[in-house]
Amino acid sequence: MGDATPGAGRRILVVNGPNLNLLGRREPNQYGRTTLKEIEDELKSCAASRGAEIRFIQSNHEGELIDAIHHAIGWADAMIVNAAGLTHSSVGVRDAIIAAAIPAIEVHLSNIYRREEFRRHSFIADVAVGQITGFGAFSYRLGLEAALQLLDKKGL
Q: I need a labelling partner for 129 at 20 to 30 A (CA). Which of 3, 121, 139, 141 fits?
């Protein structure tokens, strides 16, 4: 992962699943009013101030997310993953994370353990380095901090 170019070793991919493109409008009582673009802008700024490069993917299509994870091999040194509803149903996303061998931090806006029973199971949790859930848009910032700390520990 990474290469010998300046700045390499601090590259983070943020993977966003279905319906996250509607953040700010979709169920604001559950997910808040912050848009995905606002979250991305904050993460870009924070990552840049810490010498990290960050890229984002959002798709409502499972295969596109899997392809993005595959394409991150050799580029990304860590991933922040909010697979949204696919968290609870996608063995394919789970397998892509395993195959990519890129450390993943799972994030969720809402506390999935305080929601419907079917949302309490994550196919990603046991293949992720850790999970952050329930802090709204701040979950992403915590995920970024976790990814950067992980990379710092690896000396990247």
A: 3
For residue 11, the surrounding DSSP H or E stretch is strand 11-16
The CATH code for residues 11-153 is 3.40.50.9100
pLDDT in tens, 76-87: 999 999 999 999
Find out whether 38 and 24 touch, Cβ atoms under 8 Å. yes
Give pLDDT tens digits for 89-117.
999 999 999 999 999 999 999 999 988 89
Per annotation, catalytic residue among 31, 61, 71, 88: 31
State the CB neighbour count (10 A cutoff) for residue 61.
11
β-pairing verdict for 78-82 and 11-16: parallel
108 is catalytic: yes
Return d(Cα 34, Cα 113) in angstroms, integer: 22
Q: What is this structure's pTM?
A: 0.90
The span from the CA of 115 to the CA of 109, in Å, is 12
